Give the backbone structure.
Amino acid sequence: MNNKTVAVVGAGIVGVSCALWLQKKGFSVVLIDPEKPGSGTSSGNACTIADYACVPINSPSLFMQLPGLMLSRNGPLSVDLWYAFKHMPWMLHFLKFCTPAKVRRITRIMHKLLQKTYEGLTPLIAMTESVHLLEKRGCMYVYKNQREYRNAQAATQVRRDHGIEFTELDAGAIRELEPGIKMPFVKGYLFENASQVLNPQSLTTRFFDYFIAHQGRYVDQTAVAVRQESETVRVFLGNGEALDVDRVVIAAGAFSKAIQGTGAHILPLDTERGYHVQYTGMQSLVTRPVSWNEAGFYATPMDQGLRIAGTVEIGGTTEQRNPRVLNYLKRRAEEMFDLRDQPHTEWLGFRPTLPDALPAIGYSPQSEYILYAFGHHHLGLTLAGITGKLIAELICGEKPSHNIKPFSPGRFR
């Protein structure tokens, strides 16, 4: 048993995975979050273990497409123009990473990390006996016409170049595999080896329950600040109390910059707001996650129903939902499926986003006693396990099992 105590701030899937890996390494771990573990952004994702998703949202084509995307009323991107104006430096920083050379580098780095997905996830699934929450039926991308299909060819070639396995589908093959889709899609790709989670909230809860059952400690408070002492770190809580620990991991997603004293305020961390609508009892309409690629969402069968999840909204962390985005998802879902009822749930979450599409994994520029594990964009569920493993290796003083230099929080200095 290690005699050091580590506090993990944030009980989403990334934070809980960090806590489990640290516990596995023998540390005493305190998990800090005012909300139910897994109930934030981790609960509402598209449920995919997307180890094939190495192509970033950054793209050279955005320079030409962005004005039209921003002004469109019928697309997957929505921008609060006042928010974008106030955060123009971040927008320009993001565009700086949309050049062909930078996108190639980001893709190469992400592909290598994504290859480690199951190295980090499988031990946690086995340890917590959660295998029943995963299914491996593949994932499908679909295109409704030749224009959509042609627009996807650059990204498709990148995946081929990186050795990602998939099968090309024609209209007949799509109908045969997914007869519940009413829209006549003309082309598609099937990623046969892809997996999905049947319920992300249940998975995080399963991880958390195991953590507690093995002497993990949970503090349902907001961590408002940290301060390094001589050889420890003091974590100040919202109720006025404080905890003294040996190391702190900041895994609070889009809210990580709000914790004072971590050094995260210097990072260009912002938010992609994501939405879903969910139709209870309609999961039989598809047998695997299906992404209407150009429409910007996945249709995923879950144990609760059919989830239509995706879109990108630039608008910060305000809790107010945008009815235009929700209506867009409903309308597109009704085009794709025979849905006669309104969705039973609607949801908004906050994806933590850095302008180069890479997460921050490693030591705070301010202190080696503080570590970061946030900024995973659309891939928090996919990369939670390997992130937790890398963080635990760092705190143990081991050589990380994967090169983390590209994810260094100091790269934005």
